[in-house]
Amino acid sequence: xxxxxxxxxxxxxxxxxxxxxxxxxxxxxxxxxxxxxxxxxxxxxxxxxxxxxxxxxxxxxxxxxxxxxxxxxxxxxxxxxxxxxxxxxxxxxxxxxxxxxxxxxxxxxxxxxxxxxxxxxxxxxxxxxxxxxxxxxxxxxxxxxxxxxxxxxxxxxxxxxxxxxxxxxxxxxxxxxxxxxxxxxxxxxxxxxxxxxxxxxxxxxxxxxxxxxxxxxxxxxxxxxxxxxxxxxxxxxxxxxxxxxxxxxxxxxxxxxxxxxxxxxxxxxxxxxxxxxxxxxxxxxxxxxxxxxxxxxxxxxxxxxxxxxxxxxxxxxxxxxxxxxxxxxxxxxxxxxxxxxxxxxxxxxxxxxxxxxxxxxxxxxxx
Length: 367
Ligand code: SAM
Ligand code: SF4
Known about the structure:
Helix content is about 25%, strand content about 15%. With about 375 residues, the protein is α/β, with parallel strands linked by helices. It has one domain (about 45-365): Aldolase class I (TIM Barrel, Alpha-Beta Barrel). The strands form two sheets. A twelve-stranded mixed β-sheet has the order 9-10-11-8-7-6-5-4-3-12-13-14. Strand 12 and strand 13 (about 305-310) form a beta hairpin. Helix 2 packs parallel to helix 3 and helix 3 (about 140-150) packs parallel to helix 5 (about 175-190). It binds S-adenosylmethionine and iron/sulfur cluster. Iron/sulfur cluster (SF4) binds near residues 104 and 159.
């Protein structure tokens, strides 16, 4: 294994202003150089969550994610095979990954997605087998929800930005609202609980549906989560002044519901509130106005085999080259994880003068 430079232990500050300091009770950053060490970055953040993008292809064209035409698809030969994905994930699980989220693009477009789930849930590491979940647009769930559950999938996050057919077409550039709703119902029927519904809030598009979407979810026992739009669209048109903020979302919610904060957020990106006394909750993922970088425990693997420490990272570690080099063993894969972690920054830097949107759109990173 290549020796890594010993990480410097220093207090820093994430860009939400909260200090990023090594945790007294957790793994120490200096442990990161040990071959059997857990995945800890130079700010003392342990990493347990791996997001794996199974494809950059998608059946929708959401405006905040992909351009309408001319998507620069990843070349087929660069995409990781299932064998390669499972190997990279296995090494991650052995290093302490406990949660795997499959994403894309649209992960259910991968033909062997059920087999991928079955193989990932069978991995074991120091903390046992990982929990495997999936983020999807739901279009293939009527056919796949039950087989995915049987393969060990624990739950799903489903994107639904509007309940209005015209707006759905405008937003996703496809006429698929009915199919999306059928997919949500299929996940529920298959017991993939809790069903979480994600909506990216957009000014003048769906911000007037915050209450209706929450009602839709609460009535069915789902958890509604609103996401602040991030600068990750294929068209590079994001404008902070146009973004719907957490504060605005909460204003709309409190006009219709009584919200009580749910304590104990941990590493979760969503801040949660009980709706009208609970038990149902609504969440906001305020990645821009209230970043949670100081608690981030995520790493990402793109469909073409690049490890990324952050959605907004400019650097990637090419683990595809490692797994395709027959001279290299699992230690080199572990080293790729550590090199990726070594470059992880304290925060995403949106709003700082030096911030630059990543070249890859969200669909090619894996949300
Ligand atoms: N196709 C699947 C889906 O839509 O759920 C999985 C991939 S998608 C990239 C994952 C999540 O990223 C979705 O919840 C989507 O709403 C969110 N997303 C995409 N682009 C975004 C952006 N610019 N800002 C915030 N969230 C975004
Ligand atoms: Fe596809 Fe998901 Fe991106 Fe929408 S958000 S275009 S469904 S990858």
